[in-house]
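Thread title: Can someone regenerate the structure for this chain?

I was given the following input by a collaborator and told the matching structure tokens would be attached. They weren't. Posting the sequence so someone can regenerate them.
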Amino acid sequence: MDKNTLDITATRDGKAGKRGYHHGNLRAALVSATRELLAAHGPQGFTLADAARKAGVSAAAPYRHFTDRDALMRAVAHEGFALFGKRIFAATKEHCDPREALAAMGRAYLAFARAEPGYYAAMFALRHGDDALPDEEHDAAFQILISTIASILAERRLPDDAACPLAFQIWSLSHGVATLDMTGHLDDAVMSAEDILLDGAMALLAATGRPAD
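Best answer:
Regenerated them for you:
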């Protein structure tokens, strides 16, 4: 029998019992379980053994696909960034006006964080490094943000070399607003999270090119 398909453990009465049956897709089961644990408990709220237990497999089973907990987290983050990129593309593809496209990106960012808390937590739980899985969709989405900002700057006849720094500022603003929104810290705010984000992004753009005081 394929050990990747069926995990057998001894029950309390000494008889063999089926612990988990994952149809040969152990990796996907562990990623899904970890995504749910992240949404419920946050990045530090569970162990690799917890992920295995939730997936219905033995504590040793995850090591068939992942060297450690961080490797499993990177896999979840990779899936999250891929889905995030697709959501950004879908939100902006119908908008020709760069300001409308930027607003659509901001709304899509917040919507993703709310709808996919497990993925979102994984995406920013680990330090970005050379051992991270490639995230072409995320990189492409960030390039859309840069090009959208460059188009707005071009309307004002400003150089586009400010677009990349502005993209990082707006991304940082987006992450901060999304995090505060997800943890309930904006519940009593006069403005919606969307308005806070979009007004802040437009303020950053408006300030670009102005002489310093």
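Residues 1-23 have pLDDT under 50 and may be disordered.
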